[in-house]
Amino acid sequence: MAARPRIKDVAEYAGVSPKTVSNVINNFEHVSERTRAAVQEAIDALGYRVNIAGRQLRQGRTGVITLAVPELDVAYFSELAKHVMAEADRRGRTVLLHQTGAARERELAALHGFDAQFSDGVILSPLSLLPRDLVTRDRRLPVVLLGERSAKGSTDHVGIDNVVAAREATEHLLARGRRRIAVVGGALRGPQGTDRLRTDGYREALTAAGLPFDADLVVPVEAFHWQDGLRAAGALMAREHRPDALLCLNDHLALGALRALHEQGRSVPGDLEVIGFDDIEASRFSVPSLTTVAPDKEEIARVAVSLLLERIDDPDAAAVHDHVAGHRIIVRESTGG
């Protein structure tokens, strides 16, 4: 039986040092594309596989990272989890998936590693944590935050610019001649969560266009679920002065709103135009298909996993990263695409 190839064998085949091979395997940035390609060619040719168990035993680690999200039945989080697991697998790690239900006590448990040692670090998307929870957490456990609740320089964070994204979505509707745009899921008060930030972006777009802000067009919802969008759109259509467009703060709300408009015989995009957030898979298959703000979920996952592994490798690194991931508007039939 042939001996299992070692890093030394890969280095000799590629004509580089064993340290360079290690840098490529660990996806360190400061390796030229030419060298990276040569090492990858050697890895493929020799059939080299990283000895994950041996490496973890030497380093005193489990090889497991935790991803904690509010709700897996909200498609954005399940799709994001798929990307996180794919990136972690590529980096030789296993993901423990935890649903917090947006409950503060469960988010705190994840933030503190469940008071156990079965995970090397946590990627957490919090909705209910307080600022003091993040500032006073135990720094021995590496943590990366996702979404809107950044820790203001105390914890690595990855998310999109929700204000800019909502402003661009509103500008898209304004450019199509819509003037009475309702925000489904919006908020004027409360903590700086998704609802507040995206409502701020909406207001910025109105101000830039010289249009008045009407607080009655900001419609809070109990949750960002299908039925909440259906109820909100139904209530808006029952008003004497109805909107001519809906900015829905996630795709579940938007798809629920489309159902309500269909039931009332409203034409989309004829009578109203509708735009959502998140670009979940279902948005491509609705009738009409849904225009949506698409966060780069692959980038969010890739950067979050990379930051967490860097923090695991060097827990005392001083620099804290706040990475703004990309987004784009995908125009589909619900706004005339």
Which short descriptors sum up this protein?
3 domains, six-stranded parallel β-sheet, 434 Repressor (Amino-terminal Domain), 337 residues, 12 strands, elongated, Rossmann fold, single chain
Give a topology summary.
Elements: H1 7-14, H2 18-25, H3 33-46, H4 52-59, E1 64-69, H5 75-90, E2 94-99, H6 104-111, E3 122-124, H7 131-135, E4 143-146, E5 156-159, H8 162-175, E6 181-184, H9 194-208, E7 218-219, H10 226-237, E8 245-248, H11 251-263, E9 273-277, E10 291-295, H12 297-313, E11 322-324, E12 327-330
Helix pairs in contact: 1-2, 1-3, 5-12, 8-9, 10-11
Question: How would you describe this structure to a colleague?
Answer:
The protein has helices at residues 7-14, 18-25, 33-46, 52-59, 75-90, 104-111, 131-135, 162-175, 194-208, 226-237, 251-263, 297-313; strands spanning 64-69, 94-99, 122-124, 143-146, 156-159, 181-184, 218-219, 245-248, 273-277, 291-295, 322-324, 327-330. It is built from 12 helices and 12 strands. The termini are far apart. The chain has 3 domains: 7-50, 434 Repressor (Amino-terminal Domain) (Orthogonal Bundle); 62-159 and 296-325, 3-Layer(aba) Sandwich (Rossmann fold); 162-295, Response regulator (Rossmann fold), CATH 3.40.50.2300. Helix 1 packs across helix 2 (18-25). Helix content is 41%, strand content 15%. It is of the alpha/beta class. The strands form 2 sheets. It has a 6-stranded parallel beta sheet with strand order 2-1-3-4-5-11, with helices on both faces. Strands 7-6-8-9-10-12 form a 6-stranded mixed beta sheet, sandwiched between helices.
